[in-house]
Write a structure and sequence with these properties.
278 residues; globular; 19% strand; alpha/beta; Rossmann fold; 9 strands
Length: 278
C-alpha cells in the first residue's frame, strides 16, 4: 500500500496506473475510520481496479466554534485498517499541501441552490468548504469514480451538483448508511456521546423511521408529522436543528413521490444527522 503526502508524488504514481488502463476510484475521508468508511472501500473495490483513499481533516468545512482542533485523528490505526483491505494508495496531505495560501483561500467552489439550507443554514460556509476541497481532490487524483456515504445526504447532493455543473468526468456513487445494531448511523462524532446519551441516540433514527412508515401508509400531513417528531426528540433530550420532509433531489418542499426525511439534532456535545429516503 502506497502512502503519499505530496500532490506531485501522487500524480507521478498515478501516471503509470492510468496508462495501464486501470479504473481509478477515490474514497475521500477525514480519517478516524469506522465500519462505515470501510464499507465504502469494499463497495468501490468491486467497481474499480485501483483505489485511492484520502485522509485530510479539511479546516475550511468547519465553521467558527466547531471541533476542528478536537476532531479525532487516528492515522496509525486508519492505515492498518486500510492495509488490511488491500487499498492501493493512501493520500494524506497536510494543510499546506491542499491550501498553500493558508487561511486566505483565493478560489472557492459554491453550489448556491443547496449550500444555504438545512445543514448549510446552521453551518454557514460548511458546504463551500466541502465543495472546494472535494473539487481540489478530484483535480489532484482525477478519478474515474468517487464514493460518498448517504448519511451525509445533503453533502452527496452538493457533490453531484458540482460534478454535473462543472462537467467533471467522474461517476459519483452513493453508499447506504451503515448503522449500529440499534439503528444509530455510524459517525466519527458518535464518540462525543456519553454512555447515557449513547443509549438515547437511536431515538433520532426511530423518529424518522416512524415518519417514513406513516407516509408509506398514506399520511400526507407532513407538517403534523414533523412537529410530532420534533416534540419527541425534545422530550428525549435532543436539541433539534431541523427535521424536514422534502424532495429527495432538490431538498425543496415535497410535492411528489420522491421524498427524503432529513434531520439534524444535538445530543450533548454530538451533532447527529440522519435521513431516510421514502
Amino acid at each position: 500500500m502506497e502512502q503519499i503526502r505530496s500532490i506531485r508524488s501522487l500524480r507521478e504514481q498515478l501516471v503509470s496506473v492510468r496508462r495501464s488502463g486501470k479504473k481509478i476510484a477515490l474514497v475521500p475521508t477525514m480519517g478516524n475510520l469506522h465500519e462505515g468508511h470501510l464499507s465504502l472501500v469494499k463497495q468501490v473495490q468491486k467497481c474499480a481496479d485501483y483505489v485511492v483513499v484520502s485522509i485530510f481533516v479539511n479546516p475550511t468545512q468547519f465553521v467558527e466554534g466547531e471541533d476542528f482542533g478536537n476532531y479525532p485523528r487516528t492515522l496509525e490505526s486508519d492505515l492498518i485498517k486500510l492495509e488490511n483491505l488491500n487499498v492501493d494508495l493512501v493520500f494524506m496531505p497536510d494543510g499546506n499541501e491542499i491550501y498553500p495560501e493558508g487561511n486566505n483561500v483565493i478560489a472557492e467552489v459554491t453550489v448556491s441552490e443547496l449550500e444555504s439550507i438545512y445543514c448549510g443554514e446552521f453551518r454557514p460556509g460548511h458546504f463551500k468548504g466541502v465543495a472546494t476541497v472535494v473539487t481540489k481532490l478530484f483535480n489532484i487524483v482525477q478519478p474515474d469514480l468517487a464514493i460518498f456515504g448517504k448519511k451525509d445526504y445533503q453533502q452527496l447532493l452538493v457533490i453531484r451538483s458540482l460534478v454535473e455543473n462543472l462537467n467533471l468526468p467522474i461517476e459519483i456513487m452513493g453508499s447506504a448508511t451503515m448503522r449500529e445494531e440499534d439503528g444509530l448511523a455510524m459517525s466519527s462524532r458518535n464518540q462525543y456521546l456519553t454512555e447515557s446519551e449513547r443509549q438515547q441516540a437511536p431515538i433520532l433514527y426511530k423518529c424518522i423511521s416512524e415518519m417514513a412508515s406513516a407516509i408509506k401508509n398514506g399520511e400526507s400531513d407532513y407538517e403534523k408529522l414533523e412537529k410530532a417528531a420534533v416534540s419527541s426528540l425534545k422530550k428525549a433530550g435532543f436539541k433539534p436543528e431541523y427535521l424536514s420532509i422534502c424532495d429527495s433531489e432538490t431538498l425543496k418542499v415535497a410535492k411528489n413521490q420522491k421524498i427524503v426525511i432529513i434531520a439534524a439534532a444535538w445530543l450533548g456535545k454530538a451533532r447527529l444527522i440522519d435521513n431516510i429516503v421514502v
